[in-house]
Write a structure and sequence with these properties.
The protein has a domain of about 100 residues: His-Me finger endonuclease fold (3-Layer(aba) Sandwich). About 60% of the residues lie in helices and about 5% in strands. The chain is mostly helical. The chain has a two-stranded antiparallel sheet with strand order 1-2. The chain starts with a helix and ends with a helix. It contains six helices and two strands, in the order H-H-H-H-E-E-H-H. The radius of gyration is 23 Å and the shape is elongated.
Length: about 140
Amino acid sequence: MISIERRRELKRESNARIRARDPEAWADRRRGYVSTYRGKNPERVKEQYRRQSLRRFGLTPDDYDQMLAEQGGVCAICCRPERSTNPQSGEPKRLAVDHCHKTGRVRGLLCAPCNKAIGAFDESEELLCRAITYLS
């Protein structure tokens, strides 16, 4: 009888041979597995994606939820909830994590229009002040 460890080793070797022989077929096979997994586990995939996205900012889902609660569930600038929706599900998107691109420090949660506006002004206080003066 073959041990589980030996069986895994043999499977890895077999997969390595297949991958070396026909990398494109291997990639197609892999895409099929991924697609099937995503189709069977949409909530789990969604949660994994959320965790990965937040990890870039050093946040956990609990950290995000706490920030959202502290902001009352609305954008830190316009005080409105997110208005953009996910085109596939139709659900409202989550507020974006706003951060300083120089220091990486998280500043707050913004709706898509406010986040884009901050980016359009290159996070420059001077440009924002000029825009305020222009609007006055």
